[in-house]
Amino acid sequence: MPSALGAPNPVAIGFFFLFISVTLGITWWAARRTKTAEHFYAAGRSVTGLQNGFALAGDYMSAASFLGIAGLVATSGFDGLIYSIGFLVGWPIVMFLIAEPLRNLGKYTFSDVVAYRLEGTSVRVAAAIGTLAVVSFYLIAQMVGAGNLIRLLFGLSYEKAVVLVGGVMLLYVLFGGMIATTWVQIVKAVLLLTGASILAGLVLLQFHMNPLELFAAAAAKYGDKVLAPGQLVSNPFEAVSLGLALMFGTAGLPHILMRFYTVPDARTARTSVSYAIVLIGFFYLLTFILGFGAMVIVGRETIQGIDKGGNMAAPLLAEALGGTGFLGFICAVAFATILAVVAGLTLSGAAALSHDLWVSVVRKGSAPEREQLLVARGATVALAVLSIILGIAFKGQNVAFMVGLAFAIAASANFPALVLSVFWKPFTTRGAQASMIVGTLSAVILIGLSPTIQVQMLGRPSAYFPLANPGLVTIPLSFVVGIVVSLLAPEKRAADGFAGLQKQLHLGGD
Fold this sequence. Notes:
The chain has helices at 10-31, 37-42, 49-60, 63-76, 81-89, 91-105, 111-114, 120-154, 158-205, 211-222, 236-249, 254-257, 266-298, 300-306, 313-362, 369-393, 399-413, 415-423, 429-448, 451-457, 471-488, 492-496, 498-507. With 510 residues, it is mainly α. It has one domain: Sodium/glucose cotransporter (Up-down Bundle). Helix 4 (63-76) crosses helix 17 (399-413) and helix 10 (211-222) crosses helix 13.
């Protein structure tokens, strides 16, 4: 039976406008409460642990998770699980290493922590470069997923769909700031978990609620190789590189790190991570069921015929099991997923431009509240335009794969400097600067030289760098550069400030 995807879907459009109406209502409510920079960036630090747990899950369960991983499992089998596991295992690192230092040492962005005992200007410039690189690659994945969804729901061209998504997201962030973004994330997380649970339940009903029957059916249809590793990532170095990037990248994602400033204290920050881990872990179990369900019930050829990246596997599965009405609901949920994550990403990018660069570097920390808000909103508009351009340029890429590259940059640019600044006394300003710049540039350059860009996008017969994900090289390189530069050029001020940092780290207080 031919799919209804590609023709305007009244149910999906109805759910789409319902979600837009509710979230714009939230934005109007939030805009009336967004009076200061603290409200815009950190929701007045009034978010509870449970609320922040759902918001963290909402920020993290992106188009890559729902659309991309289901598509990778459907088209590659067992190997798609490497993304599910990789996205999840970074959270214990966030909980035990990152959440408390961020809340106790920072104000709005992760560079507040890195710059706590170092010379702030140069460190903030380097941190802003890394943040913007991560945000840019992450935005690509979300906008590609959004463009495909809206194109298929409304019958619009891909380019017009990307522009539409960029425009709606801009309204959320521009007027509502972090308060609106937090509540949009919470609504989206509830919708996504509900939709994915219903869809996974419908899949398992076809196989007597037994996942083993589902896997057996996949093996019968496509051979035992779909249950074995090696279909997607056959090179062991590639597997290790991807795993490192996904694991450590979680602890370097600027839009995730920014959420820890929205809670009142470090204990609440840790509690929110506990809630997030439970929600995210449950969701990733569902994506595995969805991927194999789409493989068996829809078929690989149909999935890749609709979208060569495999990103429409979950919506096609919803249509096969629940008709066009359920397809409409799942597509609207996927759209809510993308919109919420894009809003969070844009807000973190705007914070890097306005708080780290304009307020802290250009104005030396003395900008009035009105000016800070004005610059933050200007940065938001610039990032919205950038996200639209990138979404159009990377049309057709698998969104989970693109997010893997964003994680590689986050793990290389942000994570080493964050860990060394908090836990290693000899770390210096030059060491931090070198670590973040080398981590960012090496990751971006090696991605540009990788098979992803050279072979898949440019159509060349081979690539200059063999690994699709550069994390295996760039993460250790960033650590080594930060350590070596710090040891070659010691900084007394940074070492003397370590005791004060440790005191603030453990005792907290704003």
